[in-house]
Amino acid sequence: MRVQRVAKGDVIFAQGGPAARAWAISTGCARIVQTGSNGRQAILRFIGPGQMFGTVPLFTDHRLPADAIAAQASSVLSWSEADLLRLIDRHPRIAVNLIAVLGTRLGHLQERVRELTTLRAEQRLALAVLRLAAQAGRETAGGHTIGLPLRRRDVAEFSGTTLYTASRALAAWQKAGLLATCRGQLTICDASGLRRIAGDG
Amino acid sequence: MRVQRVAKGDVIFAQGGPAARAWAISTGCARIVQTGSNGRQAILRFIGPGQMFGTVPLFTDHRLPADAIAAQASSVLSWSEADLLRLIDRHPRIAVNLIAVLGTRLGHLQERVRELTTLRAEQRLALAVLRLAAQAGRETAGGHTIGLPLRRRDVAEFSGTTLYTASRALAAWQKAGLLATCRGQLTICDASGLRRIAGDG
DNA sequence: GTTGCCGTTTGTGCTGGAGCAAATCGAAGG
DNA sequence: CCTTCGATTTGCTCCAGCACAAACGGCAAC
Q1: Is the entire prediction scored with pTM above 0.70?
Q2: Chain A within 8 Å of B104 (Cβ-Cβ)?
Q3: Nearest Cα to B129, choosing from B177, B193, B186?
Q4: Confidence at residue B94, expressed as pLDDT on a 0 to 100 scale
Q5: Is A119 helix (H, G, I), strand (E, B) or coil?
Q6: Given an 8 Å threshold on Cβ–Cβ distance, is A34 in contact with B99?
Q7: CB pair distance less than 8 Å for B107 and A57
């Protein structure tokens, strides 16, 4: 296992490159970003402490489908492909476990696809916030705080809308007391209110 | 293994129900459709002969995330969960193979998410057609024919746009000689032309 | 303090494409 | 033959939200 320190904004691995290692975050967090040929990009996932990433292409075409970018100064672990396979060989349950993890990710992605095609920008933004809270939220004074440094642009690219609409919506919700933002920290005050806006079960 | 005949339009399994079997198409084909609480729906995949479906939730929450609907009169195979697990137990390679299959599906879904957020309707439509051709196309006189019965509405819901825009785009492309449609059969005449419209590598 | 950088907010114009309605067409069924 | 039903086409309207621009505010470096 290799341990590595990265600074905020550092590229952990780059889209299109060869996939040779399995990665995980130990402390800090990262964004998984896919860029199209027109330059526009979408955030596929946020990686928090304990989560693995960049692992799937080891089992498929060994091509990294996206960038991984540190969203904070972070500590990153990684294993070589051989080590990973040896690990699976020794503990076959890891494979079944991996199937379950991939399965849930698949389910989430399918939901995102539907949401992107059927919901409007405001609803998608609310869902994005709720999803991030479910993934990386912790109870704090005054609400549920998302443990990721989120810029408006991040929220926009994660929910498939633009910086501008994201800014407007979040500002409106802050004024309405649904959430609070401060220096990249986002705190949800009224989750049920957001769920009502999302209006999608 | 259970063999089952279904008519066009029959529901093979329904969204929200319990996942108890692994499915595959023997002859014919099916649509996997997810419906939102607002009633609008998105087509997640098309299933052709030899492809499995409904299998993933057996490994996760045992909840079917979408409907499976026969797009033609079809013959459907299925295995009980116990049989599937026994099969995996006897042939452990199946698990690794499954990971690879899930991995590629994951990759495709990630691309779709990015496309939905960054590309315009016409580009997404072109990509949808190309993707379907890659999945279920066969060489025929005059081009590459998609072996699925595709209504305009299907193409629209698969590419995240509306029936109307899909109709317009396909009609324009037919007039331009890029493709031909006839009775639910879609034939691509000029794939590179479509790729140019998609303009996304 | 000044400067520059980064992120956010806000105003404004404009267009892509969603949404509706009506006409058309074709196939199946009686 | 007529009817019915499903699918497609087409014209039209209208608005969500994208795009650009400009201003604002905080922070760090110098």
Answers
A1: yes
A2: yes
A3: B186
A4: 82
A5: coil
A6: no
A7: yes
Q: What is the pLDDT of residue B99?
A: 87
Q: A120-198 — its CATH code?
A: 1.10.10.10
Is the minimum CB–CB distance between A92 and chain B shorter than 8 Å?
yes
Q: Same fold for the domain at B2-115 and the one at B120-198?
A: no
Positions in chain B short of pLDDT 70: 200-201
Per-domain boundaries in chain A: 2-115, 120-198
- Cα dihedral angle (A58, A62, A65, A71), rounded to 10 degrees? 50
* Residues lining strand D, beta carbon within 7 angstroms: A 120-122, 161-162, 164-165, 183; B 150-153, 163-164, 167-168, 170-171, 174, 181, 184
Q: Alpha helix locations (H) across A10-140?
A: 81-90, 93-118, 121-136
**Closest residue to D26 measured CA to C1′:** A183
Q: How many Cβ pairs closer than 8 A exist between chain A and B?
A: 140
Q: What pLDDT digit, counting tens, does each position of A142-200 carry?
A: 789 998 889 999 999 999 999 999 999 999 999 888 998 887 889 999 999 999 888 76
- Strand C close to A153 by CB, under 7 A: yes
CB B161 under 7 Å to nucleic chain C? yes
Domain with residues B2-115, CATH architecture: Sandwich (2.60)
